Amino acid sequence: MSSxxxxxxxxxxxxxxxxxxxxxxELTKPMxxxxxxxxxxxxxxxxxxxxxxxxxxAAYQFTAKGNLIGVxxxxxxxxxxxxxxxxxxKPVMEGKVALFKKFANIDAFDIEIDAKTSEEMxxxxxxxxxxxxxINLEDIKAPECFEVEKALQAQLNIPVFHDDQHxxxxxxxxxxxxxxxxxxxxxxxxxxxxxGAGAAALASAKFLVRLGANKRQITLLDRQGVxxxxxxxxxxxxxxxxxxxxxxxxxxxxHGADVLIGLAGAPIEAPDTILKAMAQRPIVxxxxxxxxxxxxxxxxxxxxxxxxxxxxSNLNNQVxxxxxxxxxxxxxxxxxATHISSKMMVAAAHxxxxxxxxxIPEALIEQGLLSQNIFGPEYILPKPNDPRLQLQVxxxxxxxxxxx
Length: 404
Hints:
Oligomer: single chain
Order of helices and strands: HHHHEHHEHEHEHEHEEHHEHEHEHHHH
Number of helices: 18
Shape: globular
């Protein structure tokens, strides 16, 4: 065992003791007597079986389906660790299950699939889908994540949501809309550079356009540089954002940029040059975790007029999907939604944005649930433990579904 795997490491101790893992199953009905067992299993269980066979919607009345999410991965793109395989992804998926329960009282099963191709994953997930009221795809590399989600959304009548794409996009967008207000800028007039072109970056770009960003003003970069129309190596997903431009490098793309969004998982070289090239009152989201694309303290030193967000929990303005995905699913499950639409995602983003702008109730501060935060450069997103998220985001999502 290497030093990094020292069993005394707090994270390993946390996961190992007193019981391995982070989740368990609990009973919701009495099981003490023979009569209880007769109702729970044989012969009583035959009645709900017949009811569901007659009307599939009865499953929401007689089983846990309506409050049950499948958290599903093949471990091919574990955050910050890459392809570690399905078994190694289990701690992450158990963590996602725990977050669903903690923040939205949603039950979930983690399902790790030993499948490498999109076709294999689609087949397996489609086969087990009757178990669930919704499916959360997690840590699946591109382009498979796009292909799997699209196919399942078309084939299933329950919500299918890839959080690495849409949860990131929604949370990022809510933070960016607030930052733009503070910096006295508008989304449709802002020049946006996204350093990275993976699943989260592409989904974020599409969602920002859905919210009103000018597509011609969004430049994405992958490992080969700027994504432009003369490149012949682009996937269809990247081709959608290929620009007519002479810019080829990050430094060239950054001249006059209002917003830099880092979603590349790799440090930016010579950050001083690109930071100085940005417009006045810039917005810099350096979101890779645990090592941001640019050190946040360095950004503030070079550009004290900037608003900064990171993926780090020890700093202000953490772009954390937990302010989004539990509540998206809570709202969807509450109305037995068959899908999660872009309209529902927009509603979630605006709800998160509004919560940040509202004064924090004194009662929450007095109870020690939240500290005093004032909408401004150091507070552009709610904290993950903000109880207002549990009320406002699901309500907005459910209302958007009903208005479809």
